[in-house]
Amino acid sequence: MTSRKPRVVLGVGAGIAAYKACELLRLLTESGHDVTVVPTPDALRFVGEPTWAALSGKPVAAQVWDGVAEVPHVRLGQTADLVFVAPATADLLARAAHGMADDLLTNTLLTARCPVVFAPAMHTEMWEHPATRANVETLRSRGAIVVEPASGRLTGKDTGRGRLPDPSELFAVARHVLARGTAGGDLAGRHVVVSAGGTREPIDPVRFIGNRSSGLQGYALARTAAARGARVTLVSANVSLPDPAGTRVVPVGSAEEMRKAVLEAAADADAVVMAAAVADFRPADYRGSKIKKSEGTGPEPIALVKNADILAELGQRRRAGQVIVGFAAETDDVLANGRAKLARKGSDLLVVNEVGEHLTFGRPDNAAVILGADGSRTDVARGAKEALADTVWDLVAARLEPPAPDRPAVHASTGPPPPSR
């Protein structure tokens, strides 16, 4: 007996980024999802009905008057496992936040009791306008996941925040939300900081001291946090990976640059996860020109000095209720070294994993033991790095203080909570 395909409603707003939703639709359908495309009427000015129908293999409707006998304005939302809106324009966000139902998509949003994700795309000024920000917060307070837009080239010559994230990254968000169901928004309203990659400490303009970190685990942490509704700041050191959807990426190079960026971002963060491989030492002196090889003599020794301990400093500076997570990459006596590091650093959780030349670094999988300052231990079997990331966020979420009394209750849809039974 075959299992039912996950039902996804792909809502499309009237923005130039609608063409990118075609790629998202292709990724969803080719991975076995049953996708119904519901564009707004004006969205069809950007991408026509034949394109959506051909890619989805299903008829496309934009008005409540289409196929009235099947009551689509109610049935689509009732039967969906996920409603994913991309692009979500400023106008569409406003109509959704105010409960308007003037087309098939906004009707579907009102009837949906499944997870709802909005991927905004608009000009920077529109995204930053107080009205849009208020509408986003309203939607988030009701349990919807609003993915932060990316920065980059916009319509015409403009550049800034407001670009629709890469379709492959939006697809990753959709898969994650579907996997977690209504539990997917448990970090809504939270600001989390994640560090990723490996720092490089320059010796001269050509050479540096570095490490093997690829940033894959840190990016998995950022991606899964965004898919769970968090506002994510990703401090990224020397990583060649696409920006995870819904994150603000702060690129850095050295340990000191990472220290400054992490401490600044952590000032108002609910949680900080230090997944980056930060160099313990740096050259005491930076050579302004390339060091030349001297014939007949050995290389000059390079004196090293200690870098600041960012994780320990976070523990000393933590604000009330903030959860701090460290990583310990060990090659021997893994658990003993991990427990000692947890005691020294003052973090709430420490993710301890064994590393090596062909182990963990650059690989898509990971295994770890997560130690808690409360004496807890959580073993994570080898698997996808996203699975480890989700376990970390599960443990973080359990340690976060309850939302402030004035924060609205979170439900799994953009509408009111379902009636009690």
UniProtKB/TrEMBL annotation:
Cofactor names: FMN; Mg(2+)
InterPro entries: CoaB-like_sf (IPR035929), CoaBC (IPR005252), DNA/pantothenate-metab_flavo_C (IPR007085), Flavin_trans-like (IPR036551), Flavoprotein (IPR003382)
Keywords, alphabetical: Decarboxylase, Flavoprotein, FMN, Ligase, Lyase, Magnesium, Metal-binding, Multifunctional enzyme
Pathway: Cofactor biosynthesis; coenzyme A biosynthesis; CoA from (R)-pantothenate: step 3/5; Cofactor biosynthesis; coenzyme A biosynthesis; CoA from (R)-pantothenate: step 2/5
Molecular functions (GO terms): phosphopantothenate--cysteine ligase activity; phosphopantothenoylcysteine decarboxylase activity
Gene3D superfamilies assigned to the protein according to its UniProt record, in alphabetical order: CoaB-like, Flavin prenyltransferase-like
Region (Disordered): 400-421
DNA/pantothenate metabolism flavoprotein C-terminal domain mapped to chain residues: 187-398
Keyword set includes Magnesium: yes
Every Flavoprotein domain range: 7-167
Recorded coiled-coil stretches: none
Entry's EC annotation: 4.1.1.36, 6.3.2.5
Catalysed reactions, as listed in the record: (R)-4'-phosphopantothenate + L-cysteine + CTP = N-[(R)-4-phosphopantothenoyl]-L-cysteine + CMP + diphosphate + H(+); N-[(R)-4-phosphopantothenoyl]-L-cysteine + H(+) = (R)-4'-phosphopantetheine + CO2
Region called Phosphopantothenoylcysteine decarboxylase, residue ranges: 1-191
Note accompanying the cofactor annotation: Binds 1 FMN per subunit.
Region: Phosphopantothenate--cysteine ligase, residue numbers: 192-421
Pfam families: DFP, Flavoprotein
Family from the record: In the C-terminal section; belongs to the PPC synthetase family.
Its job: Catalyzes two sequential steps in the biosynthesis of coenzyme A. In the first step cysteine is conjugated to 4'-phosphopantothenate to form 4-phosphopantothenoylcysteine. In the second step the latter compound is decarboxylated to form 4'-phosphopantotheine. Catalyzes two steps in the biosynthesis of coenzyme A. In the first step cysteine is conjugated to 4'-phosphopantothenate to form 4-phosphopantothenoylcysteine, in the latter compound is decarboxylated to form 4'-phosphopantotheine.
PANTHER family: HOMO-OLIGOMERIC FLAVIN CONTAINING CYS DECARBOXYLASE FAMILY, PHOSPHOPANTOTHENOYLCYSTEINE DECARBOXYLASE
Cited NCBIfam families: coaBC_dfp
UniProt protein name: Coenzyme A biosynthesis bifunctional protein CoaBC
Organism: Actinomadura fibrosa
Gene (UniProt): coaBC
